[in-house]
């Protein structure tokens, strides 16, 4: 998806981000993301299904239990998210 904004051309993936990768949703369904200021369609994005959510939760759990994220202190994780 490409969008011209503030004299820039932005490229945005429309897929789900699971396990460090952009992936298509099961069933390849999409929905429109609406700009709340004017009601215009910004882009189409993947519509996650229950199986996609299960994969994302499993990937997040694995990243926390076995990856660097889980070894970072809660304070530092909060600072990174902020």
TrEMBL record:
<dbReference type="InterPro" id="IPR016162">
    <property type="entry name" value="Ald_DH_N"/>
</dbReference>
<dbReference type="InterPro" id="IPR015590">
    <property type="entry name" value="Aldehyde_DH_dom"/>
</dbReference>
<dbReference type="GO" id="GO:0016491">
    <property type="term" value="F:oxidoreductase activity"/>
</dbReference>
<protein>
    <submittedName>
        <fullName>Cytosolic 10-formyltetrahydrofolate dehydrogenase-like</fullName>
    </submittedName>
</protein>
<dbReference type="InterPro" id="IPR016161">
    <property type="entry name" value="Ald_DH/histidinol_DH"/>
</dbReference>
<feature type="domain" description="Aldehyde dehydrogenase">
    <location>
        <begin position="22"/>
        <end position="81"/>
    </location>
</feature>
<dbReference type="Pfam" id="PF00171">
    <property type="entry name" value="Aldedh"/>
</dbReference>
């Amino acid at each position: 998806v490409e969008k011209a904004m503030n004299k820039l051309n932005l490229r945005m993936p429309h897929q789900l981000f699971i396990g460090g990768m952009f992936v298509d949703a099961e069933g390849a369904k999409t929905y429109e993301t609406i700009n709340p200021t004017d009601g215009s369609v910004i882009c189409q994005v993947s519509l996650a299904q229950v199986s996609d959510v299960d994969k994302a939760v499993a990937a997040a759990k694995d990243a926390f239990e076995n990856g660097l994220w889980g070894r970072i202190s809660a304070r530092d994780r909060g600072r990174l998210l902020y």
